[in-house]
Amino acid sequence: METIKVIIETPKGSRQKYHYDESSRIISLKKLLPQGMVFPFDFGFVPGTKAEDGDPLDILVLSEFATFPGCQQECRLIGGFKATQSETKSKGKKIRNDRIFAVPVLSEVFRHIETLSDIPDDIMEETEQFFIQYNKLEGKNFEISDRIKPKEAIKLVKEAYP
User: Fold this and answer.
1) If you average pLDDT over every residue of the chain, what do you get?
2) d(Cα 18, Cα 32) in Å, to the nearest integer?
3) pTM greater than the 0.85 cutoff
C-alpha cells in the first residue's frame, strides 16, 4: 500500500492547537481548546501540498500513541472526509477543507485498519463531532459531505501538490 510522509502539528490528547508556519519554519502555539476538549488523534499536514483553504492538506493520524509537534511519520492513507467550511460572518461562502485519515506504518493496534469502514462507528462519530465543534468555536460551519475510500484520498493528496 502506498505511504506518505506526514508532519504532526498537534498531538493526540492535546488541548493546545499548534500551527506550523512555513515562512519561519517554526511551530507555534495557536490557541487553547476549552477544558475537556482534546484532539482525538495526532493532527497534522502533508508537506508540500496546498489545499483550497491555502494551507497544506490536513491529515488525522489514527494511532495508539501520541507523538509531538514537528514529528514526521510514514503513514498509509485509509480514506477521509470531503468537507466544506464557511465563516458564519461571510454569509455562506464555502471552501473545501477535507480531512484525510492515515495510520502510521509503525502502529500495531491500528495495522488492520485499511479503510474508514474498519473504524468503529462510535469513534467515527466522535471524530466527526470533534471537527464540527472545533470549527464552531472559531465561528465556522464545518459540514461533512462524504466519506471517501483510500484511492480517493490518494487522489486528493496527489492533486494538492502544486
Assistant:
1) 94
2) 9
3) yes
* Grid cell in block for residue 30: 495557536
CATH number of the domain enclosing 15:
3.90.80.10
Q: How far is the C-alpha of 47 from the C-alpha of 52, rounded, in Å?
A: 15
The answer to whether position 112 is within a domain reads yes
Q: Which grid coordinates belong to 48?
A: 508540500
Q: Which domain holds residue 44?
A: 3-80+98-117+145-159
Q: Distance between CA atoms of 101 and 149, rounded to whole angstroms?
A: 10
How crowded is residue 4: how many other Cβ atoms within 10 Å of its Cβ? 21
pLDDT in tens, 17-30: 999 998 999 999 99
DSSP annotation of 116 reads: G
